[in-house]
Task: structure prediction
Amino acid sequence: MEAVKSLDDMPSDVVSKVLAFTTPADAVRSSAVSRLFRAASSSDELWKRFLPSNIDEILPRAVAPIEFSSKEELFFRLCDPILIDGGNESFALERSTGRNCLMVSSRDLWITWGGDNRYWTFTSDYESSWRRIREDFNPRCKKHRLVLELMYLKPE
Result:
């Protein structure tokens, strides 16, 4: 096997595999190093590693279709939250690490006395991600239980 004399002689798929052990932010930064790193940092195989393994299950749940031409473009589109499951949840990727972020509407939460208007009510808040938010009238009764499907969580 012949030794590599210059970094530019290395195959870009090898560089992509090395970059896959870094973070999305590092992969983007590395594109400034050379043409080889620019090609490696834009490969679909690299960006596929930064996307959640269950992305094919998440995308069909989006309220609006997500259009993309590459895995890198999909990654950055998902860095801005998308509504899923009829608009009751929001999914996003953290830009620098690729970690999953899931926000759940208060309507999807089971809350003690949640159906009793003496303790809770839904109000409009136009600054919120959700059109209606749950307002608490009795701060002493805050037993909240949240059950998330573990499929959203990315293994460490």
